[in-house]
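User: I'll paste a sequence; please echo it back and then give the predicted structure.

Assistant: Echoing your sequence first, then the prediction.
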Amino acid sequence: MVEGQTHSLDAVFHALSDPTRRQMLRSLAGGERSISELATPFRMTFAGASKHVKALETAGLVRRRVEGRLHLCRLEAAPLAAADEWLRYYTRFWSDRLDALDHALRSADAAHVKRRKR
């Protein structure tokens, strides 16, 4: 993996590690929101919400624009695709492992049944 991609992926997983930021992203999936709107469900200050948005921006997950005093945020989903691709590798890995375990257990059961019939 290219160093820049590793850094980007690290930033995405860092941003996603916080439940508040994950909920903010879920809210942004419904459309553009102001930072104040993002802060409301958490009863946090603008400054607190802005720090969370900054972490999401650093990861490339959010784009912020300012209209006067209003800070509007929108979801940038492309970095999530890279995270999903990384996770899919491990989904395949564990599926393969679990399939092999299932096969081994079924073979062991079949051998056990054969021995009991003798």
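The first helix runs from residue 3 to 16. Strands lie at 33-34, 62-67, 70-75.
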